[in-house]
Design goal:
single chain; mainly alpha; Growth Hormone, Chain: A; 0% strand
């Protein structure tokens, strides 16, 4: 059944969840598309590679704080309701994003500039830690079980659109502005616009209602409210937590290495033309966004497990080959690799979030999703650009980021192999 046959209320929920996710993720990741500019404006060094590592360390800070945001907002979501956190996280993202666009640079206020940037990235990280798990849980609990995979995939279509939007904005600025203009004022525009759009989305989300599953859970006397959902997950759902983290780990590395870090890798280290790479990256993100919806729909019919296993195996077997082809410095190789990545990564990105919410009961679902997602992204995704750059610096091997990709895929394969399909089953 098509998503367009869903009741109007559910279509509205999916739309606003996707829109909020898109804007929130755009606000969070636009930073990395301007890594070169931030290295000059906030972390000036004589060694460009060292400067880039400083930029990516600040990027990692935003990811490392996400588990704390996830714990705070998921606790509220599992004890007081999903909607409260679903609305609050958008505002917490919009304001720091807007303020980043107004920040003075290192040349204006010295060391205060990178410190203020780190503080605002921390606030953004807190927000994302609650937003994306909340959006998946909120939407997943609203819809028919037979359409849960498709629904969660559409949410990630929206989140991917945030990546597309960030890549597209970076591409447009590089095409219409000189490098000097971007350094002077152009880099500020994406942050100011993103902050304003986030506020608009916040007011739209306020119209939504609590999920029926959570309302029923609260109304039934035999359902005991869990006082500390985090402790409950850590004590009673350790296996499910490992599975969730394992699945998230590979997606986090795919997003951060192959879509966020790769444009900088290709232009700064392999010296491909930036405008061309940004265009290719934007197109492949669009392709990936379409494919993950298709895979989410397929998982509703054939189960989640087999697609997750296929996706993990592809990156284990071909991860090194992808980077080997890129290092040949042929644009056609970039097109081939990015197209394959866009298609194959949908087996993970389009399916794993729905799989995670099916692992946990209503009493701790938000918390289980938040811990799995945020630990995976914080420790294995957020550190990816820094790890990749460090591997190249320490080994002298420009193909070394592929090793981290293959290790991540192996962990994901272990997690996927231990799963049981729960597609089409009602959430409990």
């Amino acid at each position: 059944m098509s998503v367009f046959k869903l009741p109007a209320t559910n279509r509205k929920i999916i739309f606003l969840s996707s829109l909020g996710g898109a804007l929130e993720f755009y606000d969070f990741i636009i930073y990395v598309f301007f890594a070169n500019e931030f290295s000059e404006l906030f972390f000036p060094r004589h060694n460009h590679l060292v400067s880039l590592m400083s930029v990516y360390a600040t990027f990692a800070i935003g990811y490392l704080i996400r588990p704390l945001g996830g714990m705070i907002f998921s606790h509220i979501g599992d004890t007081s309701g999903r909607k409260k956190t679903f609305v609050a996280t958008l505002l917490l993202m919009a304001l720091p994003t807007f303020l980043i666009g107004l920040l003075p640079t290192y040349y204006m206020i010295g060391n205060w500039a990178p410190l203020l940037l780190m503080l605002l990235r921390l606030l953004q990280g807190l927000s994302v830690g609650g937003e994306i798990p909340g959006a998946i849980t909120f939407a997943g609990e609203h819809v028919d079980p037979k359409q849960r995979g498709l629904t969660c995939a559409i949410i990630f279509f929206g989140i991917n659109f945030g990546l597309v939007l960030g890549s597209g904005v970076s591409t447009c600025l590089s095409m219409v502005c000189s490098h000097e203009q971007i350094l002077s004022w152009g880099w500020r525009l994406p942050f100011i616009i993103g902050g304003l759009l986030g506020v608009v989305s916040f007011y739209l989300r306020k119209q939504l209602t609590e999920t029926p599953i959570f309302r029923d859970f609260q109304s039934q006397a035999h359902n005991k409210q869990v006082s500390f959902p985090i402790w409950e997950v850590l004590c009673r759902y350790r296996m499910q937590l490992f599975q969730g983290i394992a699945l998230t780990w590979l997606d986090a590395v795919i997003v951060c290495l192959l879509f966020l870090y790769l444009p900088t890798y290709l232009t700064s280290i392999l010296h491909y033309p930036k405008e061309t790479i940004n265009i290719i990256n934007t197109i492949t993100l669009v392709l990936n966004s379409i494919m993950l919806v298709v895979l989410g729909w397929l998982s509703d019919h054939f189960g989640r497990r087999k697609f997750l296993i296929i996706g993990a195996l592809i990156f284990i077997v071909f991860g090194y080959g992808f980077f080997y082809l890129l290092a040949q410095q042929q644009i056609i190789n970039v097109v081939i690799v990015m197209t394959i990545v866009a298609l194959c990564s949908a087996c993970i990105t389009g399916i794993y979030t729905c799989t995670i919410i099916e692992l946990f009961p209503t009493a701790v679902r938000y918390t289980g999703m938040a811990l799995s997602y945020n630990i995976g992204f914080a420790f294995f995704g957020g550190l990816t650009p820094l790890i990749a750059t460090s591997l190249i610096s320490f080994t002298g091997n420009i193909l070394s980021p592929s090793f981290y990709l293959m290790v991540s895929a192996t962990i994901c394969l272990i997690g996927a192999a231990t799963l049981k399909n729960k597609h089409r089953q009602a959430l409990i």
